[in-house]
What we know:
Layout: H1 3-11, E1 12-15, E2 18-21, H2 33-47, H3 62-65, E3 71-79, H4 83-98, E4 102-111, E5 123-128, H5 132-139, H6 152-165
Parallel strand pairs: 3-4, 4-5
Antiparallel strand pairs: 1-2
Amino acid sequence: MRLFEYGIQQAITEADGFDLLTMGHPEGPGCYCAANNLLRNFLDKLSSAYDFVVIDNEAGMEHLSRRTTNKVDLLCIVAEPTPLGAVTAQRIFELAEQLPISVKQIGIIWNKANSSKKLDGMNIFGCVPYDQAVLDASMQGETIFDVEQNSSAFVAVRKILEQNLTS
């Protein structure tokens, strides 16, 4: 195993029911070049060992344009239902169509929303309502996994995943 493959394996945290690969801090101002190159080279190899691979990126289009993967089964664009959120979601959708990436299904998940705002040509996967429990957990340094499974946000995310991962 090469040194960089070993580095990726060392960066994987094994947990109950899932493993987590966390990208580190940038090499310099805004630069994830080496990490993205490693991901691009080994994501296909790593993903063959898992039923699902979730890539959670920072907000914006940068990670998509860096093409950390070439094949995507389900691309979820998560945005808040504001004018800026809608414009950004539309731009990400258009970028995904232009890049040489195979995307089987693409859609939007409205975050902190009570209703689905329609966008031209985009599938709406669903809405995750504002949930004080999520904010409280974040303020206490906890993760989403510390939020009660009956919270409105947790229930909404589960429903969205069940509907879209089985189709």
